[in-house]
Amino acid sequence: MSPNGKSPPRKPARLMPMSSHPASGPGATLRYSSRWLTNGLSLLLLCMAALTIIATLTLHEEARDLAGPAPGSELLLASQVAAELGRLADAAHDVLDKSPSPSAETLRHFALRVEILTSLVSPTDDAPRSAARLMQAAPQAVEGLARIAAEVEPWYQQLHRGDAAPAQAARAAGDMLARMPGLRRLADQAASAIHIAQAQIRDDARQAMAASFKRLQWTLAGLISGSVVLALWLLVLNSQAKHLNERLAEANAKLESAVIERTRQLAWLANTDELTELRNRRAFMEAGELLLRQCRRYPQQLAALLIDIDHFKTINDRYGHHVGDQAIRRVADALTAALRETDIIGRLGGEEFAVLMPHTDRAAALHAAERLRQAVANLKIGLLSGGPLTTTISVGVAPYETGITLDNLLMHADMALYQAKNLGRNRVHFHSPDTPVPQERDLFEDPPASGMASGPGRDEPARSAGDGG
Q1: CA distances from 407 to 282, 286, 289, 345 (A)
Q2: Residue in 392, 378, 368, 393 with CA at minimum distance from that of residue 307
Q3: What pLDDT was estimated at residue 21?
Q4: Fewer CB within 10 A of the end CB, N or C, for the chain?
Q5: Within the chain, how many helices (H) and strands (E) appear?
Q6: What is the pLDDT of residues 164-187, one digit of tens each?
Q7: Residue 437: pLDDT band by 50, 70, 90 thresholds?
Q8: Is the peptide bond before 139 cis (omega within 30 degrees of 0)?
Q9: Torsion sign, CA atoms 377, 282, 265, 320
């Protein structure tokens, strides 16, 4: 708005409601992309977790297999049985060589060899795990060892009785030597069966290990691929986040611009009379109060002008409100063009205008008021039919007095305007102490909602029967 009260010529655009929940735009795109990326990353992390579980289970199985008996322990058991049969044969020969009266030491050695052989071929619950594994890996070897155990068990029972005699030991030794070739043959068969079973076990172990390593290989490949995809996804997410941030910043800038524009529009509507684009009553009173505070702080001359269009109700009644609106606009433009940039002008309501002129004494104020009156009198308002319409104004002028309020200053100007109306209109009148006070007149009542005058105006007290208003 210019200093003289005229707003910029461009009116603000029609106010449109601002949607608080946009259905599209960067916000909706961000929500959709975030949901899509979150679902994808969750699925990828679940796959990587499953691959990690598979790798852990595979390593656990391999560790359990490595913690089992060392390969070849079953074959070692068969070799021990064969070696023990040889030692038992030597002990039996020793007993027979010293018969009929072998020494106690010879008998104890013979009985010990029988006991050791019995423990080898008859594993108990406390036996090494190799013997238990043999029962699963080589059933033929287990059968051969069981036959050896059946042969050895009577000798063991005979020699470990408390009343065993040297003669009984000799008979047992002879029986053992007679059956020793068969026992050795059974031990060799067991060793051969264990060797074959052990080879199969090793082959199965190699294949199982190869399968485990292949699972580990694919698992690690999956984890590496998932890590690469995750890294690429994060790069894409970072790029999208950067792009969305840019779009969000752009949207924020647009929103800030829209807010600034909306604020400007609201300020325009709040401070401007839409018909004339002058200050409205509220904005004029605010600017006037500020000017009076300056006058009180820095004493200076100030004049107030109150202007009213003559016979305006007649214009409305005869030509219609659209012509009345056009007249108000043309008068406002003429007043603005005839004023200085430092003057403050506003429309108080209807056909009534007010002007505050700083640094203006009585002579200058009267001269300016006369200039305004002549400018309006020279207006030609075009009509749809007939000649152009002319109109006039009456002006009341009041000077600023120290300590006076804006309301009182305008009241003085209103009193002068009232006197100008009573003196015949189309004239300027300066306020003096003897200026009569208008009756039943409230200058500061709220203006009509419309920009047009719609009832008896200030012309009514001066209306005569001959002029029609």
Answers
A1: 13, 12, 9, 16
A2: 393
A3: 47
A4: N
A5: 11, 5
A6: 577 777 777 787 788 788 878 877
A7: low
A8: no
A9: negative
Measuring CA to CA, how many Å separate 295 from each of 300, 339, 382, 434? 6, 20, 42, 25
- How many whole angstroms separate alpha carbon 466 and alpha carbon 2? 42
What would the 3-class secondary structure string for 112-175 be?
Answer: HHHHHHHHHHCCCCCCCHHHHHHHHHCHHHHHHHHHHHHHHHHHHHHHCCCCCCHHHHHHHHHH
* Mean pLDDT confidence for 370-377: 96
Tell me the average pLDDT of the chain.
Answer: 79
Name residue 253's amino acid: A
Domain ranges of the chain: 1-8+21-271, 281-462
Coil, strand or helix at 420 = helix
Q: Across residues 88-95, what is the average pLDDT? A: 80
Give the full edge-to-edge strand order of the sheet including 344-349: 344-349, 352-358, 302-309, 393-399, 428-430
- Quick one: which of 237, 198, 307 has its CA closest to 36? 237
> Angle at the Cα of 231 (from 57 to 243), degrees rounded to 5?
150
Candidates 276, 279, 275, 257; CA nearest to 267 is 279
Question: pLDDT, tens digit, for every residue of 27-75?
Answer: 566 566 667 767 877 887 888 888 888 888 878 777 777 766 555 555 5
Fold of 281-462: Alpha-Beta Plaits (3.30.70)
3-class secondary structure, 300: coil
Here the tokens at position 221 are 């490949």
